[in-house]
Design a protein that fits this description.
By secondary structure, this protein is an all-alpha fold. It contains 15 helices and 2 strands. Helices cover 65% and strands 1% of the residues. A two-stranded antiparallel sheet has the order 1-2. The N terminus is likely disordered. Keywords: Membrane, Transmembrane, Transmembrane helix.
């Protein structure tokens, strides 16, 4: 890792307006090195584009797991838990931007771990995010969580294609199609060029979800509910579920905000990282508003009869319409979650080399190899593991919290602990307590959420044995 430069200017930015320098030939970035006209500009995401990328990294079809979480917890405890998690993760996301400004050479969470805890911290945080071999080349582990999410995105696309085509062909074919399209889109070199796709994907996915939300409100009953006799929603103000189910529900709420690791990459590619907080506040406000509105409305009208996948809650016709709108959003999600780990490995391989920012043969071979490798691994994992859906929940419980809570508490303590040796102001004491609280809460949720997910996997496997590898079965019709 390059030597930390606390006072390095925010090149290629020269003003608070977020404009880049006209002459890129002399631009230098602490992460990407020299940025020239001969290659991609890795510092070209505006604050609005950053907000779109942040929102798209968080909002997906997983938002419709929120009504299920409310069914487990009850609507009032569910809303309270959602708001508390939103507050904690917003602070954590804010710390990503603050830490990036103070330590310009940080690109990923393992870089932050190395600053705070040395090589041990780099290996620990790296191992938590990627289950691959740590080599002398320092190819790190942050990619693993995103590989599983990429596999989940491919399955989401296959569900949409099954719904739209009424299962016109084998599901394994649709997953392969999703992998091919995901690879092609994810190979776009910079997040700046992807920001327009993020806006399109965000609008499409929210539209698809809102269609279902409105439809369940105007229909007589959800499609999964009994169709005979008078039906009344069985929503609950409070609920009393077993601990394993309750903590799994809370973990699903945490996972809804677990786009935090992508925020490091987004901040690194912003024209002006000083505008990161503006983008973050737009993101978290919109995301939390969408989560609350959809969670409360869908749960109020569907109760425990939310279909799985949830876009089928309003019946087959509305399912096709909503998936038609949601499909571009699913494609963008898959594009991002392949691009991010691919970019991470690409940067580690070529950092310090002229090939990183120049359109050389080496640049393209390494870049396409990274995105193709991530795509292939995600495709194989998603297609071959019988309990993949539950495994994603386990990875989310184990890594989602670890990426969104504990490191950020440690980051504040790392940057501010020394101030207490000079003057222990009330603000300093309060922030020490808050950072420690975030670390403790994150650790509790990580351990208990992992336990709950393991119990769920065991119960699910005992009940059904999981799905077959490379299955042809229609995955859009379960309820």
């Amino acid at each position: 890792m390059p030597e930390k430069k606390e006072n390095e200017p925010l090149s290629p930015v020269h003003s608070q307006t977020g404009q880049i320098l006209e002459d890129q030939s002399n631009s230098h970035d602490a992460v990407f090195g020299d940025i020239t006209d001969d290659g991609p500009n890795y510092r070209n995401v505006g604050w609005l584009g950053s907000a779109a990328l942040m929102m798209k990294s968080q909002i997906g079809l997983g938002v419709l797991s929120i009504p299920v979480a409310f069914d487990t917890l009850g609507i009032v405890p569910g809303v309270i838990c959602l708001c508390v998690i939103a507050a904690i993760t917003t602070w954590s996301d804010y710390m990503v931007g603050v830490f990036k400004l103070k330590h310009r050479d940080v690109y990923g969470i393992d870089d932050a771990g190395e600053l705070m805890f040395g090589k041990t911290g780099k290996i620990f945080f790296g191992f938590a995010f990627c289950l691959c071999e740590y080599t002398d080349a320092e190819i790190d582990f942050e990619a693993t969580n995103w590989v599983f999410v990429a596999g989940s995105g491919m399955l989401g696309i296959s569900i949409a294609l099954n719904a739209l085509s009424t299962h016109a062909t084998c599901t394994a074919v649709f997953v392969a199609v999703a992998a091919v399209v995901g690879f092609m889109l994810s190979s776009i070199q910079t997040l700046g060029r992807m920001s327009i796709f993020a806006w399109v994907g965000l609008v499409c996915i929210v539209t698809g979800i809102l269609i279902v939300t409105i439809a369940v409100g105007v229909q007589d009953r959800p499609s999964a509910a009994p169709q005979d006799g008078i039906w009344v929603s069985d929503y609950q103000i409070t609920a009393s579920a077993p601990f394993s189910e309750s903590i799994t529900a809370v973990s699903s709420l945490v996972f809804a905000y677990a786009g935090t690791p992508s925020f490091f990459s987004i901040a690194s590619e912003m024209r002006d990282p000083r505008q990161y907080t503006k983008s973050l506040m737009i993101c978290q406000s919109v995301v939390t508003g969408v989560y609350l509105a959809i969670g409360c409305v869908v749960y109020y009208y569907c109760g425990s009869y939310v279909a799985s996948p949830a876009l089928g809650s309003a019946g087959p016709t509305m399912k096709k319409i909503s998936y038609g709108f949601a499909l571009p959003g699913l494609l963008v999600t898959t594009m991002l979650v392949i691009h991010l780990p691919g970019k991470y490995i690409f940067l580690r391989l070529l950092q310090g080399s002229r090939h990183l920012t120049a359109n050389t043969i080496t640049h393209w071979v390494v870049w396409l190899s990274c995105t193709f490798g991530i795509t292939l691994i995600a495709y194989i994992i998603a297609s071959a593991i019988p309990v993949f859906d539950n495994l994603v929940s386990l990875i989310g419980a184990l890594l989602g919290t670890l990426m969104s809570f504990q490191p950020m508490g440690c980051m504040w303590l790392y940057d501010n602990w020394s101030q207490g040796t000079k003057e222990r102001s009330p603000r300093w004491i309060l922030m020490v307590c808050w950072s420690s609280f975030v670390i403790l809460v994150g650790t509790f949720l990580m351990v208990s959420g992992t336990y709950g997910s393991i119990v769920t996997i065991i119960d699910s496997y005992n009940a059904s044995g999981g799905s077959a590898a490379w299955s042809c079965a229609d995955n859009s019709n379960s309820t």
